[in-house]
Give the backbone structure.
Amino acid sequence: MMKKTYGQLSAHFYLVAGLLWLKLLLVRLLFFERIAWEWIAYDLAPVLLLLGLLTLVTPARARTAVYWVFNGVLSVLLFASSVYFNHFGSVPTYLAFYELNQVFQVKESVESTVQAVDYLFFADLAVLVIYALLRRWRGGTANRDIRRNPPRSVRRAFWSVILVSVIGGGALSVYSIGNARDITNELVQAESAGFLNYEAVAAIKAREDNGLIGTGDIKTTIAEVKALQDSYAYSASPAGTLPGYFGSQKGKNVIVIQMEAFQNFPILQSLDGQELTPVLNGLIGESFYFPRVFQQIGPGNTSDAEFMSNTSIYPIGSLAMSTGFSDRTLPSLPRLLREKGYEAYTFHVNKAGFWNRNQMYPALGFNGYYDKGYFKNDHFNSFGASDEQLYITGVEKLSALQRQGTPFYAQFVTVSSHHPFRIPEEAKRITLPGELKDTMLGDYLTAINYTDYAIGTLIESLKREGLWDNTVLVLYGDHFGLQPKDVPPEQVEEALGIPYHSRVSRFNIPFIVHVPGMAEGMTVNQTGGQLDFVPTLANLLGLSLENEDFTAFGQDLLNIDRNVVGMRYYLPTGSFFNNDIMFVPGAGFDDGEAVSLSTLAPVEDFSQYRSDYDYILKLMKLSDEYVKLLPQR
């Protein structure tokens, strides 16, 4: 009886360990599209370690139940991680669970990314439940008699297994974690260490990063930033010369429109003779248009775009900036303009608690915000009010400031083109060809077209209220909308007759600055990112960031000859865009890959860009130091 019982206990240990190992191999297949067999032991090691530790701290009678509960909990986490990867294209760390409260706000979007294969993580648990129900129906009972004093040989064999699991699993996990820590590419890091060990790597890094908070001298960091930026030849113009367009829009109102999931490729394109973005196309004819700007957001997505477009600070890449840094006094464009007599407000049809915006907006220096309760709910999508309603309320509030003679800085955050891009039939303004009906690409183009239309209603309202001729209008996309697994590049190319790259085109967002009185538009082909928005606007508004002691990690796109912008999270740390290429590292620089921004073709020899790689790693590290040293408010 006792031998059989302890044999059953060992069998449950082996079975659960084996099942979890298979699930972690499935994670490898889903995340990396392959199983690298040389690293699969790194998946088993932490499973054996954790199961062994659970055995040590659990009473004998409860061990079988604990093994299966552990299997269930880890299965839920792996399922959630797979759905997260489907949605964001990044391997999640435990820090992602800080944002779990956001999931219910975008439930429709998240649900649409669940794939049938994700439910395989629960297949064994479903079989177990069915088996237990059948046993109960047949009147079977489980043998729960595990005595305190089984024969020494049985006890010795069992504890030998546990000892090997704890010591061997722990040693192998420590080894894999140590090997992975120096890899900057998070995807390579996660693949080489294994999913569970990668979580330990993330925890160690977070602890090291948190050690910067409250330590060091921010003035020293600022001096290092300036010295590093001075070492990069952004501009060929002589030092001390007044930058072009400086102060040309001084005193003007500013309206910034952050367009949800808006990529650059639909601009200036038509579908069956229908302009996809007729309003923006018209604006480009009398605006500065920057077609080579790229997203740089972190896990905060839309909220990170708001953060960067107002601060010119890199996101840290492990946590939404609104969650981690809304307790700081953040240097920002709204704060600078308020010192010049402006009032600054932001408009968003969702609740301000989403992504902790009710804390982030004061941290950014806004006077206040208008959220869900201020807008008429026309039930456009799961967020409620449409972009049209967003602008109706916004113009009403801004007109009141105009009548008071108060200049303003206003930020509008749109949501009508949010994933999964389903808009009401009555809002659809283009007719899709048959091959695009009921496809994500067709839905996306339809939603983008509506976003463009709604902007047109805003412009008409601004003109009607006498605001248009005294307002700088800024428009940009917050992040990509289309994932390659949902919309292959070939589908876009066939539908629109344009080249489309799964990374370059996906991360390319529009940036348009309309200034009053500009008779003829100017296309500026300078590569840039979301960090460059503040310096570019500050120059137009006559704000010298140097004289204001404002530390910006971006550049004024109207006054540089070359640029390099870093990206992390949606690409591995160390990735960058410069005037020529997009570069993505492997384990380091030498085994990376590059793509030409002009031809979208691979670049075989990218050795000349090593200095850009080294530079951007240093700049992002200093940005992380800087934001962590900012004073709490």
About this structure: Residues 2-32 form the longest helix (31 residues). The longest strand covers residues 253-259. The chain has two domains: 2-210, 244-519+526-561. Residues 2-210 form one domain.
